[in-house]
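#struct-help
A.M.: can someone run this one for me? Single chain, 145 residues.
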Amino acid sequence: MPGTTVRDVPASKFIEAYAAFLKRSGKLEVPTWVDTVKTGTAKELAPYNPDWYYVRAAAIARHIYLRKSVGVGALKKLHGTAINRGNRPSHHRDCSGSVQRKVVQSLEKLGVLEISDNGGRRITEQGQRDLDRIATSLVQDEDDE
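D.P.: on it. Structure tokens below:
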């Protein structure tokens, strides 16, 4: 389908498909600590999904695709969660900046993202083509069914 973009596909399906693509390609540089690290101070354990790094990379790539320029601080807020404070009311807690920074750096090495003029990161033309190609394949698979 010509002219299909990431906006035309549900987020959960796109993120799942792009994460599978990143894992299959084997080009995404995954740090050694991904199996032990917590994703934020509000979490008690590491993620259960062994492929969580690929899922996070796909979610970040989609988020930056939909916006002009995004920094690590905005990504920390996006992936943050409520902290359990026991009997007291919950509050929002940002996620780990190191995890977000490493994911963004890995996507930069792939050529999906680049540093923006005003700070933060933006999607490259090659990255936009890759993401649109994944979205197009999802729409075609949906039409075939």
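A.M.: thanks! Residues 125-144 form the longest helix (20 residues).
D.P.: also worth noting: Helices lie at 11-25, 52-66, 72-78, 97-110, 125-144.
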